[in-house]
Specification:
The structure is a homodimer of 338-residue chains. With 338 residues, chain A is of the alpha/beta class. Chain A is 45% helix and 17% strand. Chain A has 3 domains: 53 residues, lambda repressor-like DNA-binding domains (434 Repressor (Amino-terminal Domain), Orthogonal Bundle), CATH 1.10.260; 127 residues, Rossmann fold (3-Layer(aba) Sandwich), CATH 3.40.50.2300; 133 residues, Response regulator (Rossmann fold, 3-Layer(aba) Sandwich), CATH 3.40.50.2300. Chain A has a 6-stranded parallel β-sheet with strand order 2-1-3-4-5-11, sandwiched between helices. Chain A has a 6-stranded mixed β-sheet with strand order 7-6-8-9-10-12, sandwiched between helices. The first copy, chain A, is elongated. The termini of chain A are far apart. At the A-B interface, helix 4, helix 5, strand 2, helix 6 and helix 12 of A face helix 4, helix 5, strand 2, helix 6 and helix 12 of B. Chain A binds a DNA duplex (16 and 16 nucleotides) through helix 2 and helix 4.
Chain lengths: 338, 338
DNA sequence: TTGAAAGCGTTACCAT
DNA sequence: ATGGTAACGCTTTCAA
């Protein structure tokens, strides 16, 4: 059943049905009711493909995230969920594209075949060919995270540098002098992942300012790697009394390593970092951390994208978030101090 | 740029370009090369909407999951990721629909506007109006989970009953006599969630068989609820020595509650349940559990759906999985026994 | 082996 | 306030 059928049964033209539906042209109250009745009766809904073809808008936004095999983090989940729900509130659908690079087939389909009106990109790299490509095409998009030179692109991001600095200062204030940094996997660092780089910058800078002795580690995105990583930390410098981590997925393993090594948190070892709030709360003791406001970020990204779609010539906007550290139970004064 | 432009530049007709692309009709090697060169030169890709309108296929599958606010579980993440990746392998895109009920706008859009060729549904209820509606329309779909009467529908599911029974027997074999069951939130049980119901059935049955003294609890999908729930368990029956849980998100809280109550796992309290493997491994001690093979299930669901799309009259198929219990470190003989 | 043209189901412009 | 009709960009039947 199509718009023609509705028109026939309502005794009007197809254009009138179209206008009755879109409201883009006044329709008499009378015919509008007639049309509505037929529509309700038949449960008619306009075909999305035909509509997209005719008016050039798909009412769909693409969500581009890296294909992670089975190594998704909780944060990614939160982004995906919040983007989908925020988009639904605007009556946009979300098309998933597991693409880490400009060349991925799914990414190419998204753009080339005009499947979406705009896109939201996750897991941004400092130099990101996907972002460059999109900018070049002037394709409406918003990134969750920002590249090295984010001028002209729309984004919502986290100030990882400041966040990690705050973590380091928090530890230094508690008297810690030997602190380890647990970063995302080396492969992601090398690929130029924003959070890994900026986090590392913040750590390096703050540690230097406070004159700390440090160790820097890359750690796989899973519990087993976390445990191994912690063993290396204590092996490299048994006098380490604290760590800051960006690696949410490794957190459980980090804790386990600590327990195995007989270090009690927070009595003789402090742990902090930047992690989505609900994951910070699953570990015991609960993690003192800068909570990644994943839900808010997803929502903001959608808001921004919708704004950009509605107003193609608006100047680039962005949101840089720097949530405060939530004091929970995983940090304390260094043993022997205070 | 469109197919007409390509045709013009290649000096052929539009249909020839179309056939050169689809291969549905022989095209001379010569013209095919001419066409391909123009296509490469201009980076042409056929418009998805136009193509969908003309041939009735969108090359998109819908993934329907309940809008959870911010209470997604890790398992849901794993499903979404694995479905997206499996679909990409077939060159299908995945459209997200946060819909818990037949009446959700997003769900209605999906079907009514013909945005997708088929759908995969998550978080199935025993009586599920979404599934009924889809079956009624004979709309190609596969459910992850099965309804009370899954005859005629395509699904991939977990044998929650058997899984939970296995957990109970495992505990009973270890000598536990007083065992608690930590289910999903009451609201989900009342809504008829499959896992909550079948899991409960399995628990009840096995506990009766082994003559266990039991407590049954519904628990919110977060760490705080898990902790509260555990307090209630020990308050209701301090002699409880073990629990089995379906509630992945509460796991961290359950462990914390145990620690707070001074119960050491597994020395004086055993914990088991059914949980995605990687979450079972983040807690310490690692959880002995029936690992939900989320990745495999997502992949199987896509395989099934693609098969159904390719062959509309194939009889309904399904996969019922019952992974074995992975022995890790959270269960042991009841205190005083050996 | 190729071309012409009729759809596919909308929208939106041009009339009236 | 409404109707007719030409797009939108592709696929596919019919002809040659």
């Amino acid at each position: 059943m199509n718009i023609g059928e509705i028109a026939r049964r309502a005794g009007v033209s197809r254009s009138t049905v179209s206008y009755a539906l879109s409201g883009k042209r006044p329709v008499s109250e009378d015919t509008r009711r007639k049309i509505q009745r037929v529509i309700d009766e038949l449960g008619y809904r306009p075909n999305a493909s035909a509509r997209a073809l005719a008016n050039g808008r798909t009412s769909t936004i693409g969500l581009v995230f890296p294909p992670a095999g089975n190594h998704y983090t909780g944060m990614q989940l939160d982004f995906i969920g919040s983007v989908a729900e925020a988009a639904a509130a605007y009556d946009y659908d979300v098309l998933l594209s597991p693409s880490g690079a400009d060349s991925d087939r799914s990414f190419q389909r998204l753009l080339g075949e005009r499947r979406v009106d705009g896109a939201i990109l996750m897991e941004i790299r400092l130099e990101d060919d996907r972002v460059d490509h999109l900018a070049e095409l002037d394709f409406p998009s918003v990134t969750i995270g920002r590249t090295a030179r984010p001028g002209g692109v729309w984004w919502v991001g986290l100030d990882h540098t400041a966040l990690v600095e705050a973590c380091v200062h928090h530890l230094a204030d508690l008297g810690h002098r030997r602190v380890a940094f647990v970063n995302r996997p080396e492969q992601l660092l090398r690929a130029g992942y924003e959070s890994a780089h900026r986090g590392l910058d913040g750590f390096t800078k703050a540690a230097a300012e406070r004159g700390l002795t440090v160790g820097m580690y890359n750690c796989g995105d899973d519990a087993a790697s976390g445990q191994t990583c912690l063993e290396r930390i204590l092996h490299d410098d048994p006098a380490t009394t604290a760590l800051v981590t960006l690696n949410e997925a490794a957190l459980g393993g980090l804790y386990r390593g600590l327990a195995k090594a007989g270090r009690h948190v927070p009595r003789d070892f402090s742990v902090t970092g930047v992690v989505a709030g609900r994951w910070a709360e699953t570990v015991t003791p609960q993690l003192t951390a800068a909570d990644v406001p994943a839900e808010e970020m997803g929502r903001l990204a959608v808001d921004l994208l919708v704004e950009r779609l509605d107003n193609p010539h608006a100047p680039a906007r962005h949101h840089l978030l720097a949530p405060p550290i939530s004091l929970r139970a995983s940090t304390g004064p260094v043993f022997g101090t205070s």
